[in-house]
Design brief:
alpha/beta, Zincin-like, 38% helix, 27% strand
Length: 242
């Protein structure tokens, strides 16, 4: 990933090539710094532009990090709603004479069982970890199901697909054909999950974010821009857990 240095700060950014006349810099908490530049611009010129914008970029990132504190994290108490596949399901916490905590979805609700003598803090911390494990265990089944559909459409077959911890990216496609998706995406609506899957599957055909790449994404998902915008606006909300 390209980067520039501003004082003691290293600013990393994603560089996308597009058919455009100017350089556009987009910044959000989840995707970080994204730079959309014309094909004709040299790396030296782009670096110069980024250096001139470094102070503005740094200030913007600081503002977004401060705004992140407004994202309400889950308390893991009865009656609270937990997101899964774009919907929200009520949580019921049961304190029982058990040794360990557990969380499952049954009859359209999340049910959690915890030892009756646990503090709220321990309950919250443990149930959050258990829920993330649940997301990754059951979410990968949905991911594989959706990916299979689009693999057939695109005529590709990734080496592997898995849900992982990725703080600043929704997905990654490695040169070896392994696709890693941010586990938080399983909380988003299915159409958003589809966009992230198609995005990474398309990289198996076109490694760079050029015009050919976006044309292929659009052919597969005609309304992909709406999903991309949803992630830009609402992606930070998926940080309510973890």
């Amino acid at each position: 990933m390209p980067s520039i240095q501003y004082g003691k700060t290293i600013i990393y950014y994603n560089h996308y090539i597009q058919s455009r006349k100017d350089v556009k810099i987009s910044i959000d908490l989840v995707n970080g710094v994204e730079v959309f530049a014309p094909k004709t611009i040299t790396n030296v010129k782009l670096t110069q532009i980024m250096q001139r914008k470094a102070e503005w970029i740094t200030n913007k990132l600081e503002e977004l990090n401060e705004a992140n504190t407004s994202v309400q994290t889950k308390e893991f108490v009865s009656g609270e709603k937990l997101p899964y596949l774009g919907r929200h399901y009520r949580l019921k916490v049961l304190k029982e004479p058990v040794q360990n905590a557990d969380i499952q979805m049954k009859q359209g609700r999340f049910f959690a069982t915890v030892p009756h003598n646990w503090s709220h803090k321990k309950t919250q911390r443990t149930l959050e970890r258990k829920l993330i494990e649940w997301y990754r265990q059951y979410g990968i089944k949905k991911i594989e199901e959706r990916a299979g559909h689009y693999q057939a459409m695109l005529g590709v077959s990734p080496n592997s697909i898995s849900l992982r911890i990725q703080h600043k990216r929704w997905g990654t496609c490695t040169p070896n054909g392994d696709i890693y998706l941010n586990w938080r995406i399983i909380m988003a609506p299915v159409r958003i999950i589809d966009y992230v899957i198609v995005h990474e599957l398309t990289h198996l055909i076109v490694p760079k974010h050029n015009d050919k790449f976006w044309r292929l994404v659009k052919t597969t998902l005609p309304h992909y821009k709406e999903s991309k915008e949803w992630l830009r606006v609402h992606g930070v909300e998926l940080h309510c857990i973890g």
